[in-house]
Write a structure and sequence with these properties.
The chain is of the alpha/beta class. It starts with a strand and ends with a strand. About 50% of the residues are buried. The protein binds alpha-L-arabinofuranose. The site of alpha-L-arabinofuranose has 10 residues, from loops.
Length: about 475
């Protein structure tokens, strides 16, 4: 087995890893909300206020820090007033983006904010700019956060919520260059300035406003936006980038049936996130030292599973997705000086989902397990780390990230993207003297996945890691993700 040397300097703290980097996204799309997260109070599936208990438990386990809602493209057609009050009286609408299905608005503001409270996570709203009004968005913020007497705060009380909720993260529109209005950056930037003016900080609530940033490598969008929107108007801009094996939206490739070549292309495309963050942040830095980047949609996007509604974006999730998740999270950690949040698309039954459901059954995907193995990076300090690397099919085989938590524990996450080479890693630790190492591994055939008949085919297992002197030694088998906690 090939030996690779690695090193960590515990004295070299680079940046704070915001826990929101481990964030998620839930859109009114396919079976993400309805028949996914939300089954309704009358469902035979055990639920709390209509939200599946097994999903609440699974989200809590990974310490979900933030949840984005209600879209996506859906956000720019969503009218929040349709989603409050007596459910039977809520108006219905057509979800034109996603399958043309009827949206009955039974999951709305109260249901979403109550869920976030239940999970202990930050809500992240995407406001409607594409087809909404400044007044509508301003009213939403007042309805949610105002503690005093006003028609909107009183309406919230009448609908059953006495105290306001806290709302930090507010996105002003979504993909404004595309489904959110097909705007030019200059036009959107001016609209952004106008909309954000009326999104007020009520009753001690402080909004963290996010301007709709670029699609993939549209550096012109970032440049124009940043030249008009400054850090007085926005705390961050967003970036959307999906990993598509073929790189072509028309024919993306199957989630489960792929060649080794497709696999390596997928990982290469996922690694492109690093270049995107570097290039967009270099442009941002020309205008501001403070503005942050939020990758509020990322993940693998494949062709939908056969026999499913093409508008529902339902796909399986293999070990390939686990490797994509592992390398992407390591990239976000490595840029935590500028990336303050990232949201996987999407939480349940859509795209690179954490969880898949079928009736009362629930499956935790390999991607879910990676989030669980990485959760101790949340709110830790990124440490300098290095691994001697090995090229595999044009990409570096090993990806790693190391951080130290407030209590001095060190989390190391490694992945090996190679499909044929195992490595033995010997990692020197400078500036800390850990006494014990507790490690776990996620590994299987690259095409393996968890299904409703075999929900635990892929799950983390204990993995040996040995401390000798100031170094830790462990194996990193082909197609694996390893996390180690040193204490
Ligand atoms: O996540 C699915 C869709 O992808 C979102 O609605 C949109 O923002 C993006 O194009």
């Amino acid at each position: 087995m090939k030996k690779l040397r690695a090193a960590v300097n515990a004295l070299d703290k680079r940046s704070h890893i915001n826990r929101e980097i481990y964030g998620h996204f839930s859109e009114h799309l396919g079976r993400c909300i309805y028949n996914g997260i939300y089954v309704g109070e009358d469902s035979p599936i055990p639920n709390t206020n209509g939200v599946r208990n097994d999903i609440i438990e699974a989200f809590r386990e990974i310490q979900m820090p933030v949840l984005r809602w209600p879209g996506g493209c859906f956000a720019d057609e969503y009218h929040w007033k349709d989603g409050i009050g007596e459910k039977s009286e809520r108006p219905k609408m057509v979800n034109t983006h996603w399958g043309g299905v009827t949206e009955d608005n039974s999951f709305g503001t109260h249901e979403f904010f109550n869920l976030c409270e239940e999970l202990g996570c930050e809500p992240y709203l995407a406001g409607n700019v594409g087809s909404g009004t400044v007044e509508e968005l301003a009213d939403w913020i007042e309805y949610i956060t105002f503690d005093g007497v006003s028609p909107l705060a009183d309406l919230r009380r009448k609908n059953g919520r006495e105290k306001p909720w806290k709302l930090k993260y507010l996105g002003i529109g979504n993909e404004n260059w595309g489904c959110g209005g097909n705007m030019r950056p200059e036009y959107y930037a001016d609209l952004y300035r106008q909309y954000q003016t009326y999104c007020r900080n009520f009753s001690g609530n402080e909004l963290f406003k996010v301007a709709g940033g670029p699609n993939v490598d549209d550096y012109n969008w970032t440049d124009k936006l940043m030249s008009i929107v400054n850090d007085w108007h926005a705390k961050a801009i967003s970036l959307h980038y999906y990993t598509i094996p073929t790189g072509n939206f028309e024919s993306k490739g199957s989630a489960t049936k792929f060649t080794d070549e497709d696999y390596y292309k997928t990982i290469k495309n996922a690694l492109f996130m690093d270049t995107l963050i570097k290039k967009h942040s270099a442009i941002m830095k020309k205008y501001s030292d403070n503005m942050k980047l939020i990758v509020d949609e990322w993940g693998c996007w494949y062709d939908v599973e056969e026999g499913t509604n093409p508008g529902f974006l339902y796909q399986q999730n293999t070990m390939r997705d686990a490797i994509v998740a592992a390398v992407s999270l390591n990239i976000f950690n490595s840029h935590s000086d500028i990336v303050c949040m990232a949201n996987l698309a999407q939480a349940v039954n859509v795209l690179q989902a954490l969880l898949l459901t079928e009736g009362e059954k629930l499956v935790k995907t390999p991607t879910y397990h990676v989030f669980n193995m990485y959760k101790t990076h949340q709110d830790s300090e990124l440490l300098y780390s290095f691994t001697e690397n090995q090229d595999t099919n044009g990409i570096p085989a090993v990806s790693q990230s190391v951080s130290m938590s407030k209590d001095g524990k060190i989390t190391m996450t490694f992945s090996n993207a190679s499909l044929d080479e195992d490595f033995e890693i010997e990692c020197d630790i400078v500036g800390a003297a850990p006494k014990s190492a507790s490690a776990c591994i996620l590994t299987n055939d690259v095409r393996a996945y968890n299904d409703f008949d075999a929900p635990e085919k892929i799950k983390p297992a204990d993995h040996p890691a040995e401390i000798t002197g100031s170094s830790v030694k462990f194996t990193l088998p082909k197609c694996s993700v390893v996390s180690i906690i040193l204490s």
